Amino acid sequence: MKGAAVRVEHLTKVFPDGTRALDDVSFQVNPGDFMVIIGLSGSGKSTLMRCIYRLIEPTAGKVFVDDIEVTALRPDELRALRRQIGMIFQQFNLVKRSSVLTNVLSGRLGYLPPTWALTNYFPRDLKQRAMENLERVGIPEKAFTRADQLSGGQQQRVGIARALMQEPRLILADEPVASLDPATSHSVLKYIEELNKKDGITVLCALHFLSLARRYGTRLIALKAGRVVFTGYPQDIDEVRFREIYGEEAVEVEIA
Amino acid sequence: MAHETVSRPLPPTIPRPQTRPWTLALLVLGLALVYAYGWKVTQIDIGQLMTNAHLIRPLVRDLIRPDVLSWVPRTQSASAPFSYSAEGAPAPAPPATGPRLLLSTPVAQPGQPLQIRGEGFAPNRPGQLIWTDQSGSSARGSEFRTDAQGRFTLTLPVPQMIGTHHRVTAEITLEGRQLRPSVAAKLVFGRLVETVFLALMGTTLAVIFAVPVSFLGARNLMARSPLGTVVYYVVRTILNIARSLAPLIMATVVAGWGGIGPFAGVLALALHSIASLGKLYSEQIESIDPGPIEAITATGASALQVIRYAVVPQIVPPFIAFTIYRWDINVRMSTVIGMVGGGGVGFLLLQFINLLQWQQAATAVWGITIVVAVMDYLSAVVRERVV
Questions:
Q1: Which of B358, B230, B299 has its CA nearest to residue A78?
Q2: Is there a contact between A166 and A86 (Cβ–Cβ < 8 Å)?
Q3: Which label site among A160, B101, B216, B269 has the fewest CB atoms less than 10 Å from its CB?
């Protein structure tokens, strides 16, 4: 299994209220990349991610994952593709009242017959694998705890374990550490980095802090008001470019 | 409440309009008129509380000595079956020791003589025969007295009773007496059980209808299409109107439909509960977190799986909590509903009061208090655990 390639061509999204969230966005992610997306809040990072697995229907343009044209898939084909794309959210989006184990197992639902859901049935080997994934993110002892009893960092690790259940070839992480403190941010990003380096999963990750982008990203694109204003390597973002992306007033904040 | 008025300084720049003295006087006069009319129309009469104090004295006095236990004579009894026809005639052997009843024949027609011999009873005690027919109703018969050996023999014509398989019992009154639940306590207990189940059935019936209705009354699910929006407003309007009808009024109306008794109470509670649960449920559906729905959808799950793993876990615990709370409310409601013909303990309480049986009424009042308090506590505990 190797990471997926992503190609975005002239992607445009105009919301019903007239907001131009994405404006002719084109870029490419190579297999195995850790691609960081930076940009101000509202610059279109989340919309871009949601267009890639089509939770939001783009207005125009095409998205390819490997050579599959995502924007042309029928609903059942789309579901089959979504199984291979793991999603990690800023607010973790766990089912708070369910156990950690159930949350992790729910990552596998795309592969299971829908009728099994009626009896809440998961095969034994899947439960075994869910436990292995929880061990991988370092919280096997929390398997039977309710998700909302966990700290933010632990919840995000459950989110990673859930994405791992999909055996993804691509992980989309939408500001995965924006709700976490600096130390926890590093520990969560290290797990994502490990998936990228060790398993070869392609990662597309929106981040707020440039220091984190430089530390973890292998490639970087910057969005501003729905347009790509920079494509290249994280190390190439200097003072001038930083002001281009974030505006003249911006001052870079370091995160330890 | 008080702190709101204390520490909120007015913006100094905005001049307050000066209240003129005559405006204030008019306001005071207006309020005085309102309360004067209210006093008159509700016929408040403090003096009556004093003069009529003797009328409620028995109730208050008996409230502290409810009719719960009563002394009954200790008894000793034995019985034997007999039948009008030989078909399937029961003839179990009487016990070898202790009090036992022996019949000359297990099969006898009405009017034929039947010899009843009793052995092993207490000596020299008065007793009475009790005839129990096939339907279970019984009648007291001949009196007798045991001899020095604890025996007696009676020869009687078989009485005419309903059915074919009957039972005769001899009951001997012993010396001394024992404490047993009083008749009123037994009645109240039975009706309290009926009340709790009346509330349970009413709540269950309401849940069955309220769950589907709540989905139709949830804005986030329905307001996606014009038709859905219309359904949403229609459902919400009906729920609001239905909720404004108090269960007591509902029971009075429904008593004609379901007949006077517990069933009418069940219907009244159910109708009111559908409305209130429907509203609570749909508000719960409206407030679910869309995040997990997105997350589960993103894993490639189907619509059924998304509902099962993202929607249901979010709504089931609050649904259970609301339902138990509703049951708790309905137990309280059903004690009152009984008074207008809805069955349950309320009807019994009303009868005791009408018959001026204050001690028995006190038993009912205490019974209601205990059951309601226990339900209240249990529902709080369960809700705490579920949510």
A1: B299
A2: yes
A3: B216
Mapping DSSP to helix (H, G, I), strand (E, B) and coil, where does residue B355 land?
coil
- Comparing A95-104, B23-32, B86-95, the range with the smallest average pLDDT is B86-95
Question: Would you place residue B16 in the very low, low, confident or very high pLDDT band (cuts 50, 70, 90)?
Answer: low
Range B46-53 contact pairs with CB under 8 angstroms and sequence separation of 24 or more: none
Distances (CA, A) of B362 to B71, B140, B196, B226, B331: 18, 31, 19, 58, 19
Q: Mean pLDDT throughout A136-151? A: 92
**Could you tell me how many residues make up chain A?**
256
Structure tokens at A64: 């390819």
Residues of chain A positioned with their CB less than 8 A from the CB of B302: 79, 109, 114
Q: How far apart, in whole angstroms, are the C-alpha atoms of residue A68 and residue B344? A: 68
Residue A256, Cβ neighbours under 10 Å: how many? 7
Closest partner residue to A95 (CB to CB) among B297, B301, B314 is B314
- pLDDT at position A191: 92
Q: Quickly list H helices, B245-311.
A: 247-258, 262-286, 290-298, 303-306
Judged by a CB distance cut-off of 8 A, whether residue B292 touches chain A is yes
Tell me the mean pLDDT in the region A172-186.
Answer: 90
Chain A CB contacts of B304 under 8 Å are: 114-115, 117-118
Residue B57 and residue A163: Cα distance in Å, rounded? 73
For the stretch B210-245, pLDDT in tens is 998 988 888 877 776 788 889 999 999 998 888 888
Contact between chains at B309 and A87 (C-beta distance less than 8 A): no
Torsions phi, psi of B260, nearest 5?
-65, 130
* pLDDT tens-digit series, residues B327-378: 888 888 888 887 777 778 888 888 888 898 888 889 988 998 999 899 888 8
Which two tokens mark A15? Answer: 């919301």
| Nearest-neighbour CA in chain A from B37: distance (Å) | 55
B294, B300, B304 member nearest A117 (Cβ)? B304
Residue A127's DSSP bridge partners are none
Q: Closest Cα partner for A217 from A9, A1, A32?
A: A32
pTM value surpassing 0.95: no
CB pairs under 8 A between A and B: 84
Cβ of residue A118 closer than 8 Å to a chain B Cβ: yes
Q: How far is A166 from chain B (nearest CA, A)?
A: 7
- Judging contacts by C-beta atoms under 8 Å, the chain A residues touching residue B318 are none
What angle do the packed helices B312-337 and B358-386 form, to 10 degrees? 170
The pLDDT score that the predictor gives to residue B254 is 78
Structure tokens at A20: 């131009």
Q: At B15, is the pLDDT very low, low, confident or very high (cuts 50, 70, 90)?
A: low
Whether residue B188 contacts residue B344, with contact meaning beta carbons closer than 8 Å, is answered with: no
- Interface check A79 vs B, CB under 8 A: yes
Q: What is the amino acid identity at position B210?
A: A
pLDDT surpasses 60 at B11? no
pLDDT at B5: 42
